[in-house]
Amino acid sequence: MFRLAQGFLAFLAILGCLTTAAIPGYPFRYVSTLPWATRVDNLVSQLTLEEMQLQMARGGRGILVSPAPPIPRLGVGPYSWNTECLHGVAYNGAATSFPMAIGLAATFSPELLYHVAPATALELRAKYDYMRHGVYGDGRGLSCFSPVINIMRDPRWGRNPETYGEDPNLSGILATHFVHGL
Predict the structure, then answer these.
(1) Model's pTM, two decimal places?
(2) Among 35, 47, 82, 178, which residue has the fewest nearby CB atoms (within 10 Å)?
(3) Are 61 and 27 in the same domain?
(4) What's the whole-number mean pLDDT along residues 109-117?
(5) Which distant-in-sequence residues (6+ apart) come within 8 Å of 152 by Cβ?
(6) Domain identity same for 68 and 129
(7) DSSP labels for 72-105?
(8) pLDDT the model gives residue 11
């Protein structure tokens, strides 16, 4: 009985060595002690020119560009990086819609933006959970396009309502609170 147990343990040890050797070495993914720059350099050095092009050209909005394709040989899954979070999670089904940035700025309340941002982040993570289960679509990435910190300088600019207004000081304070809330 003792020899049988020893043989079984030896078998498990050999099996463990074989399966460990079969796990692909992706230092950019599995060695978290490496600095980010090293991890990024390692990943990019393993990408082909075509893979780099597809990762940069796809992943945004629209049928033709979403999501960025997976790279199975490197263990990289698909990714959708375009998510509009200007006043809540947009373009992705039911979500809370807060007033536009210019309306939030009119309150002169940094604390309000600090509380709006976590609500947006929570809904964004909930929608991102679909992606973990293989359901991809526009606006389901974790890259939040917000806040717009450009200063409103010209009333003809079509994106004025997405800004916090024309006061650089107020815009900076509100944007800082929004980002810290995310």
Answers:
(1) 0.66
(2) 35
(3) no
(4) 95
(5) 102, 160, 163, 165, 166
(6) yes
(7) GGGTBPPB---EE-BTB--SSSS---PPPHHHHH
(8) 42
Burial class (CB in 10 A: 0-12, 13-18, 19+), 50: exposed
Rg (CA), the chain: 23
Question: What local confidence, expressed as pLDDT, does residue 156 receive?
Answer: 93
Which residue(s) pair with 88 in the sheet?
A: 86
Tokens of 32: 């978290």
Residue carrying structure tokens 């720059």: 37
Q: Which residues contact 1 (CB under 8 A, 6 or more apart)?
A: none
Q: Is 152 helix (H, G, I), strand (E, B) or coil?
A: coil
If asked whether residues 8 and 20 sit together in one domain, one would say: yes
Same domain, 81 and 60: yes
Residues 65, 56: contact at Cβ < 8 Å?
no
Find the mean pLDDT for residues 151-179.
Answer: 94
Domain co-membership, 123 together with 147: yes
